[in-house]
Design goal:
- The protein is of the alpha+beta class and 171 residues long.
- The chain has helices spanning 57-69, 83-98, 113-124, 136-140, 144-152, and strands spanning 4-14, 28-30, 33-42, 105-108, 130-133, 157-159, 168-170.
- It has a 4-stranded mixed sheet with strand order 4-5-7-6, covered by helices on one side. Strands 1-3-2 form a 3-stranded antiparallel sheet, with no helix packed on it.
- The longest helix is centred in the middle third of the chain and has 16 residues, at 83-98.
- The model is unreliable at 1-6 and 9-30 (pLDDT under 50).
Length: 171
C-alpha cells in the first residue's frame, strides 16, 4: 500500500523586530517571516480540512487559480476585495462557463497585471481559443518571458500587436 504525502510550507505574518531570534527548530526565517513545513501522510489521496490563511490579495489570487485548476470545487473564505481579485474571480467564472462551448472569447484584464500573468499561464493549460487583453497601458507591459516559457512547454500563443507585450491570443 502506498502512502500519499503532502508537504505544506506555511508562512506566518511578518516577524516583529524583537522576535527575530527564533528557535531554529520552529522553522526557517524567510524575509522576516517564519516558515514551517507540515507533512501530512494518508493512505488515500483525499485531504479534507480547513487552512486559515491571512487576508491577502496575493494569496487570494493564487487560491482562485488553484481552485480553477482543481477537479472539484471548494469555498474560499476571507477573499480579498481588491479590484484585481474581484476581476480575476469574474474572469475565471467566465472561462468556466465558456469551457462547455467552443467559442473564442476575449477576456479583458483592465489594469490587473497579476490577472494578466496568471490567466496567461492558466489558459495555456486548458483547451480552447481565447484572446487576452487589457487597458492601453497593460498592452504596453512586457510579458515575453512568460510567453516564451509557456511556448517551450507546448503552448500556442501569439501576440496580437507588438511582440512581447500583453495582448495575446491562443491558437
Amino acid at each position: 500500500m502506498s502512502i500519499f504525502c503532502v508537504n505544506l510550507r506555511l508562512i506566518s505574518e511578518p516577524l516583529r523586530e524583537k522576535k527575530r531570534n527564533i528557535n531554529p527548530l520552529a522553522g526557517e526565517v524567510i524575509k522576516g517571516r517564519t516558515m514551517k513545513t507540515v507533512t501530512i501522510k494518508k493512505a488515500d489521496r483525499i485531504i479534507n480540512g480547513t487552512i486559515q490563511l491571512p487576508f491577502s490579495k496575493s494569496l487570494s489570487n493564487r487560491l482562485l487559480i488553484i481552485r480553477a485548476q482543481s477537479p472539484g470545487d471548494f469555498r474560499i473564505h476571507n477573499l480579498a476585495e481588491a479590484d484585481d481579485t474581484l476581476l480575476l474571480a469574474t474572469l475565471l467564472k467566465q472561462i468556466k462557463a465558456r469551457k462547455k462551448q467552443k467559442l473564442i472569447e476575449e477576456l479583458d484584464t483592465g489594469n490587473a497585471g497579476t490577472a494578466m500573468r496568471f490567466l496567461t499561464a492558466y489558459l495555456a493549460s486548458i483547451p480552447g481559443s481565447w484572446i487576452l487583453t487589457g487597458s492601453e497601458r497593460m498592452k504596453q507591459r512586457p510579458i515575453g518571458a512568460l510567453v516564451d516559457a509557456l511556448r517551450l512547454l507546448g503552448a500556442e500563443i501569439d501576440y496580437r500587436s507588438e511582440e512581447h507585450t500583453s495582448e495575446l491570443q491562443s491558437l
